[in-house]
Design brief:
Blueprint lengths: L6 E4 L3 H12 L2 E7 L14 H4 L2 E8 L2 E7 L12 E6 L2 H11 L4 E7 L7 E5 L5 E6 L5
Parallel strand pairs: 1-4, 5-8
Antiparallel strand pairs: 2-3, 3-4, 6-7, 7-8
Helix pairs in contact: 1-3
Length: 141
């Protein structure tokens, strides 16, 4: 079986994002390795003491679905809105609660509203530069 797994790259804020996403989505950490944990054959470049504590590889599970995350040292971080993750909740209240946790420092693209396909949706770029859609299915007209 072939799987597609989103992989979020950060520039030193990965652990902060993990903590926030745990709160917003009830996510669970399946794995968290720091650069200091990496086999030197995997990563042999010199690191500052701060970078040694950065996240080398992490796996976060949102309702059983895996997202990989890391602090990337190879490529300068750039925000992108070309791709987004959509999280579908059962209720409007859950959408609002998650958005309240995630909205600090974010840029709202579409405020909370209803559409033909969703009774509650909000789209934004979080403070880490990732685009999210939080929504319910269309349960109310």
């Amino acid at each position: 079986m072939t799987l597609i797994t989103p992989n979020f790259n950060f520039a030193g804020q990965c652990e902060e994002a993990i903590t926030l996403y745990q709160k917003a989505f009830g996510a669970e950490v399946g794995c968290l390795l720091r650069y200091s944990d990496a086999d030197k054959a995997d990563w042999d470049k010199p690191l500052t003491p701060e970078q040694e504590n950065w996240v080398y590889h992490a796996e976060l599970f949102i309702n059983g679905q895996r997202i990989m995350m890391c602090d990337n040292l190879d490529v300068p971080f750039r925000k992108s809105t070309a791709l987004s993750l959509t999280v579908t909740f059962d209720t409007k209240e859950e959408v609002r609660q998650a958005y309240e946790l995630l909205r600090e420092g974010s840029e709202t693209i579409y405020p909370i509203h209803s559409t033909t396909y969703s009774s509650c949706i909000v789209v934004f770029v979080d403070r880490f530069g990732f685009r999210w859609g939080l929504m319910t299915e269309q349960t109310e007209r």
